[in-house]
Amino acid sequence: MAFLRSTSFFSDSWSVSELTQYIRELFEIDYRLQDVEVSGEISNFTRARSGHLYFTLKDDKAQLKCVMWRNAAERIRFQPQDGDAVVVNGRISVYEASGVYQLYAEQMSPLGQGDLAAAFEALKAELADEGLFDAEFKKPIPQFPRKIGIVTSADAAALRDIINVLRRRYPLVSVLIAPTLVQGADAPPQIVRALRWLDGRDDIDTIIIARGGGSMEDLWAFNDEGVARAIFAAQHPIICGVGHEVDFTIADFVADLRAPTPSAAAELAVPDVSELRPYFQAIQVQMKNLVLEQIGQQRWQVQALKRSLNHLSPRVSIAGNRQRLDGWQARLDRAMQRRLDQSSHRLNLLHAQLTAVSPKATLERGYAIVRMRDGRIVRSPAAVQPGDALTVQVHDGQFGVVVEEKE
Description:
Elements: H1 16-29, E1 36-47, E2 53-58, E3 63-68, H2 70-73, E4 84-95, E5 100-113, H3 115-130, E6 147-152, H4 157-169, E7 174-179, H5 187-199, E8 206-211, H6 225-233, E9 238-242, H7 250-254, E10 257-258, H8 262-269, H9 273-312, H10 315-357, H11 359-364, E11 369-371, E12 389-394, E13 397-402
Parallel strand pairs: 3-5, 6-7, 6-8, 8-9, 9-10
Antiparallel strand pairs: 1-2, 1-4, 2-3, 4-5, 11-12, 12-13
């Protein structure tokens, strides 16, 4: 096998492909690298549709890219997954397209659980025993939030995805971002501070904790005990959307709702306005029916009260009293008329009697009344002397006379 370029000592420069091929040949001529046994913890495990396996072997200081072709993968007697500690046999070479050296695995056997996976399971069991995962402590997610707080990296694609989903599904909601690191040793205390800051506000309805996918190491900040306890102690409901659908963190188990991705967390946090129209139409129909029902009940109550008022109303007794008053008025009128008739009859009798004894009636019969000048009635000839002027009253007038003689 030729592993040195014949012109390498005379050319001024190498091309990238020439240098990469040269390095690959250096790996391949080292017999120690052509049959190696490497132990480590599996991370970023992927099974391609072709059946090939792609993963990373790691320990606390380094990582090694690995690939296992389908014919070798079919001989594995267990199902490898992230966190498994394994022993892998194979050869070291260079993948020239990306310039990365990697282990081409031929065999794989389990060695035991990796340190990170073991720490994950230990903390998960401890918090589960304390009840931090219990459903009774899960807070309901508001159906129509006004403001959502987001704990994530300010320049992360996850944040852009969340905002895009919120704008598309429910543009009425406002967003408050608490930026923080989401990876590395400094991330957990920053995540706790950001979460507590949002949780201390009165204008927040829901909090989303999110970051994109990655290896277990990348997501380890969300397996931190302090982060888990801060989530559990929060007063506001929390949706956790960390990693991809296959990724699980301690934060997922403590949160009030777990979303498979950051975008899914945004979808779970708000309703879709396009789906609300039938909902509000149904509510409108229900409200209309309730109002009509209430109106019907109130109308029935009004009718019942009206009947009670009619029964208790003094109008009936007033009508009876009015009728009795009319009867008494008629009786009084009749009594007065009788009295008037009687009085009129008596008056007529008296008038007739007076008329019978009246001087006028006497005068009408041809008699006359003779008076002195001073108005005294002359009753005897002795009362006058010849020459006296007298007044004679007849029934239709009077005239004067002078006494000539008396007998």
